[in-house]
Amino acid sequence: MIEEKVEKFDIINELIFERAPWLRQKNPHIKYLYRYLKYVLRYAATLEISEKLAHKSAVEIFNWTEKNIAKKLVVRGLHNVPLKGAALIVANHPTGMADAIFLHAALVKIRPDLYIFANSDVLRVFPQLSNSIAPVEWREEKKTRAKSRCTLQFTKQAILEQRLGVIFPSGRLSKREGFKLVERDWKTSAVALAKKYDLPIIPIHISARNSILYYLFDMLHPTLRDITLFNEVLNKKNHCFAVNIGPKILPVELSSDDNTATNYVYNLVIELGQKSKNHPLKALMRFRAVSRLSQYNV
């Protein structure tokens, strides 16, 4: 048990140091700041949860996140998700890892076979999720042919098994511009994948935000923002997410130019967000603490 705790401690520390290398400094002021940051960002709670889930199965981990994190969820348009067959969910990315958790909670009841293109670091903490996560290397300097081949092999096998994929084409969560969240530029990989394997695209818009602390850290320095990754998952138990699912887009409907096709899908996703703004369920999210609206479909 002690060895497991040390191992999780090492992994989580390493993930933090990779995002903010300056925290490794021996400077006493930096050490004090790191201790303070760990307190503010609920480091102890993160370590405790990672230990608790260390030997759980993938299903048990997702059940835990649904029960303890994805508690306030409104879903519209669930009928647009095919009940079987390979397809690709394409969504915006407002908050980070929590987006994947809430989408999984929204979809798993009708598509227990779903998989998610996500940061490969997830598997460093929870390797038992290897059948649910198509690993993507987020650091340009760490990308290799071997890692790209691993992602491709996972994807090919999942499509062969007729599974439902979830991808965030921006690759990174939305950036802050003033008091607004702006989706980052989308990569063309999602539409290229859909066209190559003849996968229908299901556009999804997620309405959500991170904490005030996250945006404050973002104003101060990007590395401070990046080390909030665990806290910005744990605190979502108090946040409301709205998921709006649009009608499928067939690959034949897309432009032969990947950039044009990507812009087309992007605009459809943003429009879904505009349509949901005045929906009565969205208003309910603003003015009530919604205890459990998961899987609510209208």
Keywords for this structure?
globular, two-stranded antiparallel ribbon, disordered C terminus, seven-stranded mixed beta sheet, 298 residues, Glycerol-3-phosphate (1)-acyltransferase, alpha/beta
How would you summarize this macromolecular structure in one to three sentences?
With 298 residues, this protein is an alpha/beta fold. It contains 13 helices and nine strands.
Low-confidence stretches: 283-298
Main sheet specs: 7 strands, mixed
Structural class computed from helices and strand pairing: alpha/beta
Termini separation: 47 Å
CATH domain topology: Glycerol-3-phosphate (1)-acyltransferase
Shape: globular
Mean pLDDT: 86
The gyration radius over C-alpha positions equals 19 Å
State the CATH class: Alpha Beta
Strand content range: 5-15%
Number of domains: 1
Report the strand count: 9
Percent of residues in helices comes to 40-55%
Tally the helices: what do you get?
A: 13
Q: How are helices and strands ordered from N to C?
A: HHHHEEHEHEHEEEHEHHHEHH
Query: Any guess at the CATH architecture?
Result: 3-Layer(aba) Sandwich
